[in-house]
Write a structure and sequence with these properties.
About 35% of the residues lie in helices and about 30% in strands. It is an alpha+beta fold and about 170 residues long. A hairpin with a 2-residue loop joins β6 and β7.
Length: about 170
């Protein structure tokens, strides 16, 4: 459970919500990007209620096959263990199927605890390769792939695949 907490936290934090706060109809790409921002902000605020908004019934976090009930347990521990933190990330890569009912989001992100430097990260958000090169030697670097489905005009998270950056690259 020691190494699972940050992975479970990030998975849950990024992907457990539909864009239910949108006031006006928006394009799918903007809804998905807003969803990512909303979830990251909720994670940074330790807002578990916002992170448990609607997801699909068959939701899983891979590679461990964790369910929503599993993730809730890990999040409680992870929030306490990590304390105050910020999540930094470049623009996510989106693939939206032509039928507009399924999407995939790839996101690389860095979790920094209070007091750790974030110098230069905001300036590199629009260049994922430069961003990754800049943060590659920092701790708690992850990559996630979300699979989303659209139901009643809201994007729901169906699954999340995680990889943690190690000295040899990304892997489970």
């Amino acid at each position: 459970m020691k190494n699972t907490c940050p992975i479970a936290l990030v998975g849950f934090l990024l992907f457990f919500s539909a864009c239910s706060t949108c006031q006006e109809p928006e394009g799918d790409e903007k809804q998905i990007k807003n969803l990512v921002t909303f979830l990251l902000t909720a994670a940074e605020n330790h807002d578990l209620a916002s992170l448990t908004e609607p997801i699909t019934q068959d939701f899983k976090v891979e590679p461990r096959g964790l369910s929503l009930s599993d993730i809730k347990k890990y999040l409680f521990v992870a929030f306490r263990k990590l304390g105050t933190f910020k999540i930094h990330y470049p623009e996510p890569t989106l693939i939206i199927e032509p039928d507009g009912m399924w999407a995939s989001v790839k996101l690389t992100f860095l979790l920094l605890r209070k007091g750790e430097s974030d110098t230069g990260l905001q300036a590199l958000r629009s260049d994922p390769s430069a961003w990754l090169e800049n943060v590659g030697k920092r701790a708690r670097l992850y990559r996630a792939q979300l699979e989303l489905i659209k139901k009643d005009s809201a994007w729901l998270v169906q699954s999340v695949q995680f990889e943690r950056f190690r000295t040899t690259g990304f892997g489970p």
